[in-house]
Amino acid sequence: MPPESMPDALGRLSFGPFSVDLRAGELFKGKKKIKVQQLPLQVLGALLERPGEVVEREELKARLWPADTFVDFEHGLNTAIKKLRQALSDSTAKPRYIETLPKKGYRFTGKLQGEFARPAARRARLAALAGKILYVRAEHDIECIVAPVDEKSREEWQRLLAVGDDVGVSVMIAQGHLLLLPVGAPVRVLSAAGERGWCETRVLEGEHYGKTALLPRDSLRESSK
After folding, report:
1. Measuring CA to CA, which residue among 147, 122, 152, 169 is closest to residue 214?
2. pTM of the prediction?
3. In terms of CATH architecture, what is 3-127?
4. pLDDT tens-digit profile of 90-131?
5. Which residue, of 131, 147, 170, 221, is most buried by count of CB atoms within 10 Å of its CB?
């Protein structure tokens, strides 16, 4: 497999003659860097998360235009799609990469290259979460979840869980290396840990306000309800 068709550790994805690194905010055609604004790249990132699936306009609005942002969303999205198509030399009439579904949304119709395309898409999806406010979630009516404050604490916590050392876990909680976060608590995503699926977050309210916490992606949701 040619090196340029393989996603790197930062989540570079390739399709056709193009490659994109969403974390760095760069788009290339072959080895040539294509000039494109960040918003069109963010739209592309959202579409690359679910290749072949429809991403609705309202979903893009919730993701890329915060509720307190006063802009013309319709015009902004239409402009972003237009600039994205220009960067990809794509056509509205005969799309190779970005298909429009009128009044619904958009779909990425290209083929991601390389055997690592699926893990890379997951890394891209996680990386695209940086800066977003999400909410703690849990199943089975659990009121709180445990969150390590950093990678070292996460490794120690998982080691204690593996040997069933509940006392050690309690000590870590008492020492502040593990946080008990209530379900529904808002956090801001600072970064994502690639294929591991863990996000570094900042707690935005409650007892642990301002502290960092590592949370698995499936313990976060976009709505507070």
Report:
1. 147
2. 0.49
3. Orthogonal Bundle (1.10)
4. 988 889 999 999 888 999 998 877 544 555 555 566 566 778
5. 147
